[in-house]
């Protein structure tokens, strides 16, 4: 291998390693009405968490117009638990909204993984 190929190969390997975990995806979600306008969401996220430097760090509940209704912060990596489900209750959903979008975020890529839409059975 030439001296020119070695740095290129090393850079490619470093880039590939950083991209292994990819973006965080919401793969399943369930909504349960708790009371007058309040909802609980059980959300399953898939992400190849690598540790503290690259992990799924939150998921969000959005109205169809994109406005943020709630955020569940994930306080640690889930390296050995994939996919994983976490819940958040007490999310106020305004009258007239019949579906929400759930999306996940990771500490390297931010947003951009798979999203899930959930119909709200009122």
User: Fraction of residues in helices?
Assistant: 10-25%
Task: Calculate Rg over CA atoms.
Answer: 18 Å
Architecture (CATH level 2) name: Sandwich
Please work out how many helical segments DSSP would assign: 1
- Total number of domains: 1
CATH class: Mainly Beta
Secondary-structure element series: HEEEEEEE
**Mean model confidence by pLDDT:** 84
Q: β content, as a range?
A: 35-45%
Derived structural class: mainly beta
Largest sheet: 4 strands, antiparallel
| Shape estimate | elongated
CATH topology: Immunoglobulin-like
Question: Which parts are unreliable, with pLDDT below 50 for 5 consecutive residues or more?
Answer: 1-19
How many strands? 7
Terminal CA distance: 65 Å
Topology:
Elements: H1 5-19, E1 25-35, E2 38-46, E3 56-62, E4 68-73, E5 84-92, E6 99-106, E7 116-119
